[in-house]
Amino acid sequence: MTQSTNRPPGKYYEELNVGDTWETKSRTVTETDLVNFTSFSWDTHPMHTNAEYARNSPFGQRLMHGPGVFAMASGLEIGLGFKEGTSLVMLGMTWNMKNVVFIGDTIRVCEVVASKRETKKPDRGIVTFDLQVLNQRDEIVQDGQWVIMFSRIPAEFA
Q1: Which residues contact 80 (CB under 8 A, 6 or more apart)?
Q2: Which one, of 67, 69, 39, 65, lies nearest residue 54 by Cα?
Q3: Is 142:96 a contact under the CB 8 Å cutoff?
Q4: Neighbours of 73 (CB within 10 A)
Q5: Options 3.10.129.10, 3.30.470.20, 3.30.420.40, 3.40.50.740; which CATH number does 13-157 get?
Q6: Rounded Cα distance, 91 and 68, in Å
Q7: Residue 76: half-sphere exposure toward Cβ, Cα within 13 Å
Q8: In whole numbers, what is the pLDDT of the chain averaged over residues?
């Protein structure tokens, strides 16, 4: 098998610098998102599925599932493209739910390279990212850190 000579569009470990910052496009949370996530996850808590129950709650309306917001944020983030063909694996994360998200809220992700470290293997490195999910009012609804292993620049692309 021959190795590809086409350079992937993503950034390699060496091309990521502490402080690099990105912001995704935005996405509005829909009723369909809530229904699809409920079906997929089997999370039928009445705060998500029962309008009357939710109306009588402190929030006054149904909430999008926290893990569903995380999934949408992950999709928005991967759309930035800088991991395409260069990230190898997510090694871990910490994640916090800060505020609720309602149907009709619009979210986006802000991401910063927080730190980098070398590994024992010379063909890869580890990058830690700080992420914030913000709503249309610039309120942080979720945040955390992702730790991701990246390829180093192969000799044929150096």
Answers
A1: 22, 24, 111
A2: 65
A3: yes
A4: 25
A5: 3.10.129.10
A6: 21
A7: 24
A8: 95
Q: Which of 24, 57, 52, 13 is nearest to 152 (CA)?
A: 13
Q: Compute CA distances 153 → 22, 122, 124, whole Å.
A: 21, 10, 9
- Which secondary-structure segment (H or E) carries 132? strand 124-134
pLDDT tens for 62-96 read 999 999 999 999 999 999 999 999 999 999 999 99
Query: In this structure, are residues 108 and 134 in contact, taking their beta carbons and an 8 Å threshold?
Result: yes
Cα–Cα distances in Å, from 59 out to 14, 53, 67, 91, 153? 45, 10, 18, 35, 49
Name the nearest CA neighbour of 126 among 148, 153, 154.
Answer: 148
Tell me how long the chain is. 158
